[in-house]
Amino acid sequence: MSEIPGELKYTKSHEWVRINDDGSVTIGITDHAQDLMGDMVYIELPEVGDNLETGKECAVVESVKAASDVYAPLDGEILEVNETITESPEVINQNPYEDGWMFRLQLADNAGLDSLLDAKAYEEIINSTDQ
Amino acid sequence: MSLKTPLYDKHIEMGGKMVDFAGWLMPVHFGSQIGEHNAVRQDAGMFDVSHMTVTDLKGADVRDMLRLLLANNVDKLQDKGKALYSCMLNSDGGILDDLIVYYLDDNWFRIVSNAATREKDIRWIENLAKDFGDISVLERTDLAMIAVQGPNAKEKTYAALGDALREHTEALKPFYAATVGDLFIATTGYTGETGFEIILPGKAAAFTWQMLADKGVKPIGLGARDTLRLEAGMALYGSDMDETISPLEAGLDWTIGWSPDDRNFVGRSSLELQKKEGPKQGIVGIVFKGKGILRRHQEVSFSGSDSDLVLGEITSGGFSPTLNHSIALVRAPATVTPGSACQVNIRGKMVDAEVVKYPFVRNGKSCL
Q: What pLDDT, on a 0 to 100 scale, did the predictor assign at position A131?
């Protein structure tokens, strides 16, 4: 039911990763994740220049229902964060893969990319946890 | 095994996201919890509350039994159709449940109590009833219940269900009920808005729901029900009160029927003792306008009178869509008063919040 764009990479913890032409990556949370959480009311983002480490908490999303940590899918340095979603958290509900992106990262190296899931593998994971 | 209300199929049809609540499959939202919340504050919404427990008490001795059962005084009910909010206490003064009792006639009272406490409540009532001569305790599992709430709730209900209803209910003051054919229509609710709670035969629930929807009454899930009642400062059983908490400690002093002195309700002696000594804790409201969301179980520290920090805990908290910031009810030492400052531990970060008088919102408007 959730939208899972084929060109993106994913994590088990429901982050998506878009590999940009300039080699940086853009990261957000998936349609499935926003649907599970319901209406977003507060987003806490890392700061530009922060160094992220794979698997470590790097942001917080809070909905009417719950607070959830966002985990860094890859190692790298924050280039840009999306201030739109801190002003209007509902944008993540409306458009999680485009306007609802969270931050852009300069990768330390490309090693982590291989361990990300493709759309099919991610879909299998959410289908199995849904049952 | 999850129970389904007679409206289950309607919820699925209308896109309800179903969750387990006290053993019942109930809609938590129909797309957007905040949208639903705002619909009730600004227009009209309907809630399936059929999971709640409706119990009819019949017989000549029912009023006598309710004098013993309820912390509030059932003798405040002298007009037929009048409703009363009360707690039901154990002998220690702890709250077994909170409920609304309706006086229908001298041989018939109706209690609406919580879903999660259903079996405990019925057992407790049946047990007390044994000592009275003529009482039957009948749980009305054949009935459904739909709450229609919001500034336009009454008009839309009349548009949907016909003008006969208007004739019989338009003059009802808050906290009354009237019976119109198969419908039991009460001017009660759990949102801080005007409206009705309609108790009706289960088999009539689905088409009634559809008729209301056809007149623009929006279906509302349990998520918005919780944020609406929190804004209205209404206590939730199991969160803001339980068997270890007395009404004096739950912000429910006003529901204790102290007078007359010789009405010996269950829990009275414990409550009197607690009142004499002064309750050690109570409920206060807090607001937080900064970044982050107040949630249940977060720890709150208050500056004590002797510069010691005293601690409290959020019993209900969340984002208020009407006020656009966080609000919470906090179990706090009795010394804490509105206007004082406090700090809340939000996920390891201490933030400054303010103690306020609640309710936070009534009839669509901020009370702050």
A: 43
